[in-house]
Structures are given as structure tokens and as C-alpha cells.
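The instructor's notes for this session suggest beginning with a concrete chain rather than abstract definitions. Hand out the sequence below and ask the class to guess, before any prediction is shown, which regions might be ordered.
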Amino acid sequence: MTPERRVLRLVIVGLILVLVTLIGVALSQLERRTLEIEVGPSEEARRNPFLAAERFLARLEIPVSSESGRERLRRLPPPTDTLVVRHPGSLAPERRRALDQWMTDGGRLVVTASESVTAYAEEGDLAAGYGVWLSSDDADRPATEGQTEVLAEVSIEGPGSPLRVAFSTERALETLAEPEMAAIAADRLRMVQLPVGEGSLVVLADDRFMTNAAIGEHDHALLMAYLLAPAPGGTVWLLYDRDVPWIGAVVWSAAPYAVISGALCLLVWAWSAGARLGPLQPVPSRDRRDLLEHLDASADFLWRHGQAAHLIKPTRRRVLELWRRRRPDLGGLDDAALAHAIAIATDEDPDAVVRALHVHAEDADAFVRQSALLQRLWRKASIRSGGQAP
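After discussion, reveal the predicted structure:
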């Protein structure tokens, strides 16, 4: 190894050592931290407001299932189960009778009161049929400044009673029945439980305490588990309404770049459709034109579209008919002989007469010459026969 190569090798090794040392010093100055970034609720949690309640009941080893829609009301579960329905609204008579019988046989139904003015507002309102409805007086009551919730104490069997639960200040119940359990806050009824045969009906003014947003507050989870506990061997069914997003939101979430590309293409198309080339044409006059102007415009159109034969064909036919009437002896001649005879009679060039009568003009000058020659042939035949020129 030459001295130069040995020196170069030492320099490279030294640079590598210096670089490694600098990297080590830089890393030793860094501090490792764990950052928690809030990403909000999951897609499943946004779709199902009872997801947290479902998982809490599952941890308590209570059979539970959540469903979207009202199919479970058409296929009722066994009377050992518990049904939770958000705002059932007006039910068909046969559906209401089926639920009445299901509760009588031992089922537990938990519903949120629907909007109604009186207990008799809607015939199909299940809660109103049992004498429970939303109070209309709360809309007229002035709300406490900055207060949106009130706390109610609910007494239940077992340790830890009473339970503290928050209800909305804007919703309260009124009832004509005698409940076996009730929750009162700010002198207003917020929840009632009514016996129905072997089962029960629980009507809530506000079910927010069971949703994902509030189940972790106060004693909400414990009250939810107490109200929804099914009979031995039963299952809790949580029914919720799934909000169907606008189709535009679905497309945007699935393919945002395709939406952006389509919008840009639409803008480019709109711009190109509105762009013009050259100066604006003058607005045509709407005055009525005479016959000659219409004829001139029609002839110009036919000439520009290669239909000049339609312009000269009638004149050729009339010229030939006129000469056959004037000279009956020419009737048996073919086209060439007839043209030659007409040329001799009119003292015109035979080749020019043949082209005028039978050959298509190649350009505008030839067309003008043919038209002028046909005009002369007509005039000479008309003068000799006493006719008039066209």
C-alpha cells in the first residue's frame, strides 16, 4: 500500500469516527417522551351511542347486544330479556299490543319519552298509553343561567344507594299513574318505572346518562346496569337509530382525491365552455328580409356545402325543354348531339355549351360562366320562339 493510500484511509476512518461521535452526542441530548394525541371517538362509537353501555354490561357478564333500527320490535325477544328503545314514537296498534303482552309476560322495556303535548297526543304513543308523557311546562320555565343539567338521587336496593344521576333541565315527565320507582330533580319528574303484569316499563325524560358521552359521570353506569338488568338467562337489547350521512359525505370520506379531481375537471370544463375565440359577432338584424335575400342566402349555403348542382340543375332542364319545344327535330338526339346542335343554332362554342348543360362546375368562376351561358341560351331560344327570359 502506497503512503498516499494509507493517509487517505486514515482520513476516511477519522471522519467516520467524528461523525459517529457527533451522532452519539446529539442522541444523548434528546429526551424521549410519549405524547397522547386525542383523535376523538371511533367510527363505531359515533355510530352507536350505547357502545360504552354495551361494553360495561359485558364486563359485568350480562348478555348484551346493540342493534340499529327497529327490527327487534317486529321480532320480540323472550320475556326474560330487556329492550332499550330511544324515542319509539308512534307505534302501530298491533305492535303496541305485542309489546303490552310481552311486558305482561315478564319483559322489561326502557324507553325515552317522545315529544307530545298531552297524554292523549298520539294514539300510538306507548308511554302515553300508560299515563306518562313529556311535560310541556318546561318550555315556558326560565332556565337557570349556565345550568343545563340537574342532579337527581335515585334510591335502589343494595349498597351505595342513593345514586346520583344528571338529567337535562329542558325535559321532564308528568304521569297519571303510581310508579314503583321514580327520580325527581328540581321538583320535576325525570324517570318513572311502572309495573306491567310480570314485567315493567321504564320511561326516561332524558337518556343521555346511558350514552357514550355521559356514562362515565356520577353514578350513571350503576343506574344503567340496575335499570337494564334482565331476568336470569335474559339478554339486554340496545336499539338505536343510525344516522345515515349525506351521500356527499360518504363519497368524500371514501375517495377525497377523486372528488377533488372531479371538481377541478368540472371547473376546467366550465371555463373552456365559456371561453371564446376571436371578436364577438354582431347581433343579426331581426327585420324581415325580402325574397331575393332568402334566395341569396339559400344559394350561398348550398354552394358552401358542395351542393351547387342543385342550383343549376333546374336552369339546365328548362333550357333543354325550351329548345326541344322550339326544335322538335332535335328530340331524338343524345345529350352531346343536342348540345352541339344548340351551339350551332346560337353561334356559341360547342365545348362550352356541353359543359354548361352537362358538366359540373369545378370552381366559382366556372359556375359563373356556365350560368351566364345558360342565360344566353335561354334568351336566344325565347327570342326566337317569342318567350321571355327567366
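Then share the key points. The radius of gyration is 49 Å. The first helix runs from residue 3 to 29.
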